[in-house]
Amino acid sequence: MTITLTARALLLDMDGTIVNSDAVVERCWRRWAGEHGLDADEVMKVVHGRQGYATMAVLLPDRPMELNHADNRRMLEAETADVDGVVPVPGAPAFMASLVGLPHALVTSADSGLARARMGAADLPMPDVRVTAESVSASKPDPEGFLKGAAELGFAPADCVVFEDSEAGIAAGRAAGMRVVGVGPRAAALAPDVAVDDLTRVRVSAGADGGIVLTVG
After folding, report:
1. N or C, fewer C-beta in 10 Å, the chain?
2. Of 130, 168, 164, 136, which is closest to residue 149 (Cα–Cα)?
3. How many helices (H) and strands (E) does the chain have?
4. Per-residue pLDDT tens for 129-164?
5. Is position 15 annotated as part of the catalytic site?
6. 6 by DSSP, 3-state: which?
7. Separation between Cα atoms, residue 170 and residue 174, nearest integer Å
8. Which helix (H) or strand (E) segment is 58 a member of?
9. CA distance linking residue 70 with residue 67, whole number of Å
């Protein structure tokens, strides 16, 4: 079945959506779980989509937030230095190439250094407009990042389509009033507007009215 969506702008999560960084995430977060006596498998169920300090607050709710922020800084340093196994999600190179000249933005829980490292390792072009961890006061599932991305591109939330892979990210997109294309197995179970295994079946073209036409199928 072919599904068609129209939009004025696309807002793209990074990890799990256009970049497969699961190998690094597993290494860094399993190490952190061991340091804090937590079940690593349970930790891995909640790490995706949020900024590190927000994940830590979920896992260690009684811990002082300043300790979470300190650990988050160390986590970002470790993740930025480790790009072994970082690759594009299948179909991402062609998908990103098709966005040239069309309104789109990166909206990621990574900071700018980590975003550059992972996009570079995956050999994907960095969008001109990007909302990173430094740009927001609240982590996904708060919609702030997506709303900022839409505002910077100059479009209403309802005119934007979000590409996301995680529960926190999909919740953020919905809270922003945007339609969501869920990418990958994590997203498929969360009832996004459209679910795809990866980006190989997604086609992007310019609409006759200057908008964007998304075809999935």
Report:
1. N
2. 130
3. 9, 11
4. 999 999 999 999 999 999 999 999 999 999 999 999
5. yes
6. strand
7. 6
8. helix 52-59
9. 5
DSSP state of 134: G
Question: Quick one: tokens of 167?
Answer: 């529960």
0.90 surpassed by pTM? yes
> What does the alpha-carbon distance between residue 46 and residue 116 come to, in Å, rounded to a whole number?
24
Q: Is the dihedral of CA 112, 151, 6, 177 positive or negative?
A: positive
CA end-to-end span of the chain? 6
Within 10 angstroms of residue 96's Cβ, the number of other Cβ atoms is 22
Residues 72, 68, 41, 196, CA torsion sign: negative
Contact in structure between 185 and 205 (CB atoms under 8 Å) = no
For residue 1 the two structure tokens come to: 């079945």
| Burial grade of 191 (CB within 10 A; 0-12, 13-18, 19 or more) | exposed
Q: For the segment 55-107, what is each residue's pLDDT rounded down to a tens digit? A: 999 999 999 999 999 999 999 999 999 999 999 999 999 999 999 999 999 99
Rg of the chain on CA atoms, in Å: 17
Instruction: Report residue 111 as tokens.
Output: 């900071």
183 vs 176: CA distance, rounded Å:
18
Q: Extract the tokens encoding 153.
A: 């591109």
